[in-house]
Design brief:
Number of strands: 10
Strand order of the largest sheet: 1-2-3-4-7-8-9-10
CATH topology of the largest domain: TIM Barrel
CATH class of the largest domain: Alpha Beta
Strand content: 5-15%
Largest sheet: 8 strands, parallel, barrel
Helix content: 40-55%
Order of helices and strands: EHEHHEEHEEHEHEHEHEHHHHHHHHH
Distance between the termini: 27 Å
Low-confidence stretches: none
CATH superfamily of the largest domain: Aldolase class I
Number of helices: 17
CATH architecture of the largest domain: Alpha-Beta Barrel
Structural class: alpha/beta
Radius of gyration: 22 Å
Shape: globular
Length: about 425
C-alpha cells in the first residue's frame, strides 16, 4: 500500500464534517491537483469526545460514497503507541507511530555500540546535495545521536512489527513521528535517524520531525521564517539522499503536523516541494471544529447561544482544558474577553473574533486557541451539540470547505 505524492490529514473532532472536508479535496482535483484525503484522530481525542476509531472509518467511507470519490483515501491512527494501538488495528490503514517520548532516553549500551560501529563509515565530511554546508561527522557525533534517538527508533520498530503481525506487511502506511520532541532534529540527526529506521526494517513513507518555531494549535506559525525555510529544504534534501543510501521507500516524504493554519510557512513549503519535486503530507488538526463554531455563531439564534455558552464554560475551566495542550498553546489570559462581554456580541462579532483572519482587527488568537482546546465542552453536550450541527448544516459546511480549500490547499499546493 503506497501513499500518493500529496496527502492531507483531516482532523474532525465529532466525525460530522467528512463530506465537507472531501468536497475541498474534490475542488482541488477539479483544478488538477491530486491530493489523498487522510482522516485522522488520536486516542486522546477519542477519549475526550467519546468516539471510537470505527467512527472515523465510517465517516470516511460515508463521505467517499456520498461524493462518488474514486481515488485513494486513508484512515490514520494518529499518534499511537503500543499501549493504544489495538483499538485502531481493524479500521485504520495509516499508522502514525509517535515515539517522541522515547527521545533522550538511552538505549542499551550494546545497541548504541552497534549503531556507532555501523555508521563509522560516515566519519569525516558528509556532503548532501541541496545542503550548502558540509556536515562534519565524528564518532562522538554518531555516539550522541545514538544515545538520543536509538531507543525511540527501536520503539518505532516494535510498534511497526506489532501492526505488521496483525495486518500484514503491505496492508498499511507507516509514519514515524518525532514532532512533539523538545528540540528540532538537525540535518545530521535526520540522516542517521533515517538510517536507524532502515535498520529496523520499517518501510516508512512519511516522517514528521520537530521543526524550528512554535506550532501552536489553530493559529499561525511563530518563529524565524528564514530559519524554517532553510531547515525545511535541508530536510527534503536529507530525505532524498537517505532514500538512496539506506534503501528506504522511494515515496518517503515529510509530514507537517501543523496544528493548522500555519499560513506564514505555506509559501516556503510550496516553493520547496516544487524545487525538490517532493511529496508532502499535511495534518490539519482540529480547526474543522472551529469552523463548526463559526457556523453556529453565524446561524444566529440558538446556534449563537451554543457558541457563546461553550466559550463561557471554556473560560471558567481554563486550567483543565489547557493543561494537556500546554506545550502547543500560547494564551495570554488577560487578552481573553470576559464571557459577559461575549454574551453581548452579535453573530458577526463572534465570528470575526474566532475566524483566523489576521487582517481583521477583531481577530483574537487567544480566544481562538482557548476554543480550539475547548472541544471537550461540546463533547459533554452530547446529542444537543450534534443536533445543532445538523440544524445549521449548510452554513457550517460552507465554512469547512472554504477553510480547507481556500486557506490551506490553495496556499500550499496551487
Amino acid at each position: 500500500m503506497l501513499l500518493e505524492k500529496y496527502s492531507f490529514g483531516i482532523g474532525d473532532r465529532f466525525a460530522c464534517e467528512g463530506i465537507a472536508q472531501l468536497k475541498a479535496i474534490v475542488k482541488a482535483k477539479e483544478l488538477g491537483i491530486s491530493i489523498t484525503p487522510v482522516w485522522n484522530k488520536s486516542q486522546r481525542e477519542h477519549l475526550i469526545t467519546g468516539t471510537s476509531p470505527e467512527s472515523v472509518r465510517v465517516e470516511a467511507d460515508n463521505a467517499v460514497r456520498a461524493l462518488g470519490w474514486k481515488d485513494p483515501y486513508r484512515v490514520d491512527a494518529d499518534h499511537i503507541g503500543l499501549k493504544n494501538v489495538d483499538s485502531f488495528l481493524a479500521t485504520s490503514d495509516f499508522f502514525t507511530l509517535d515515539v517522541a517520548d522515547f527521545i533522550d532516553r538511552k538505549a542499551e549500551r550494546e545497541d548504541i555500540e552497534q549503531f556507532v560501529n555501523r555508521y563509522k563509515r560516515y566519519i569525516g565530511v558528509l556532503k548532501i546535495p541541496g545542503i550548502d554546508e558540509e556536515l562534519e561527522i565524528t564518532e562522538s557525533t554518531i555516539q550522541a545521536i545514538g544515545e538520543k534517538y536509538i531507543l525511540a527508533v527501536k520503539e518505532a520498530g516494535k510498534i511497526y512489527t506489532y501492526i505488521e503481525d496483525a495486518k500484514g506487511r503491505d496492508n498499511f502506511i507507516t509514519e514515524v513521528s518525532m514532532d512533539e520532541a523538545a528540540m528540532p532534529q538537525t540535518p545530521v540527526e535526520m540522516f542517521f535517524i533515517l538510517g536507524a529506521i532502515s535498520d529496523e526494517k520499517i518501510p516508512v513513507q512519511t516522517i514528521a520531525p520537530k521543526l524550528t518555531g512554535r506550532f501552536n494549535k489553530g493559529v499561525d506559525y511563530a518563529g524565524d521564517l528564514k530559519a524554517f525555510e532553510k531547515e525545511f529544504n535541508n530536510d527534503l534534501s536529507v530525505i532524498k539522499y537517505a532514500v538512496r543510501e539506506f534503501g528506504l521507500p522511494e515515496n518517503l516524504k515529510l509530514s507537517i503536523h501543523s496544528g493548522s493554519d500555519k499560513f506564514s510557512i505555506y509559501e516556503p513549503i510550496r516553493e520547496a516541494i516544487r524545487r525538490h519535486d517532493s511529496g508532502l503530507h499535511v495534518k490539519t488538526a482540529g480547526t474543522t471544529w472551529l469552523e463548526e463554531l463559526i457556523g453556529l455563531a453565524l446561524g444566529g439564534g440558538e446556534g449563537l447561544n451554543i457558541a457563546k455558552d461553550i466559550y463561557s464554560k471554556a473560560y471558567n475551566r481554563y486550567d483543565e482544558l489547557c493543561e494537556p495542550y500546554s506545550a502547543v498553546i500560547d494564551i495570554d489570559r488577560k487578552l481573553l474577553p470576559h464571557p459577559n462581554k461575549v454574551k453581548k456580541w452579535d453573530e458577526e462579532e463572534f465570528a470575526r473574533a474566532l475566524r483566523h483572519d489576521k487582517n481583521c482587527p477583531d481577530y483574537n488568537p487567544h480566544f481562538r486557541q482557548l476554543l480550539h482546546v475547548g472541544f471537550k465542552i461540546a463533547a459533554e453536550m452530547g446529542k444537543s451539540y450534534l443536533s445543532a450541527l445538523e440544524e445549521y448544516r449548510s452554513i457550517i459546511e460552507e465554512n469547512v470547505v472554504e477553510n480547507i480549500f481556500e486557506r490551506h490547499i490553495k496556499r500550499i499546493f496551487l
